[in-house]
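tool_call predict_complex ligand=D-xylitol-5-phosphate
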Amino acid sequence: MNCLSPSLLSADLTRLGEQVRYLDDAGAAYFHVDIMDGCFVPNISFGFPVVKAVRSLTEKVVDVHMMVDDPGRYINACAEAGADIITVHFEACRHLDAVLQQIKQVGAMASVAINPATPVSALSCILDQVDMVLVMTVNPGYGGQKLIPYTIEKIRELKRISDTSKNSFDIEVDGGVNTENAGLLLDAGANILVTGSALFKGDLEENTTQFLNILE
Ligand code: DX5
Ligand code: ZN
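tool_result ok
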């Protein structure tokens, strides 16, 4: 199934509840919450109180993207705050296998993200244990950047692997996703589109309708 995962980093935080409820009713299946630590990425964003607030607003999938060094330290806190999916970065984990097991132990879906410069082959040993792979199509840390074209081939590569191995996984794409490139990303094999600025800038209702039509 193809799903929209609005990135709340670009939401109007003075009206977060209103916007989450609107998107929930309109048909967003996931809500993407970006946690940044100012170390793994040069920016600081939300923490677990925000995950908890989002959890209290919706029954949909709370999709937490941890842009945090050594994220194993926070898996329990993240699950307790209400995350359904916990994504950790390949580049941020010294013991990725152990962190993925930790995520499963707390009952969340285990997902791994790769930065633009990280090849799919880096994940070859762990792809049979993940529920989702997040392909970063920009360098993580900020909303509103332009998609880096060479990352699209990695979506195709992951889709081929998912289709031919016994563990099929979701493929989420994050960074610079807009209504112009969404079709291309779905054709490449992504099934969960994260979108921040292209959704929240301008007319939220019109943008939501456009995205949901493309995803249908
Ligand atoms: C960036 C974050 C994204 C970001 C996407 O590091 O992981 O989720 O909010 O924003 P847009 O869609 O504006 O690129
Ligand atoms: Zn993200």
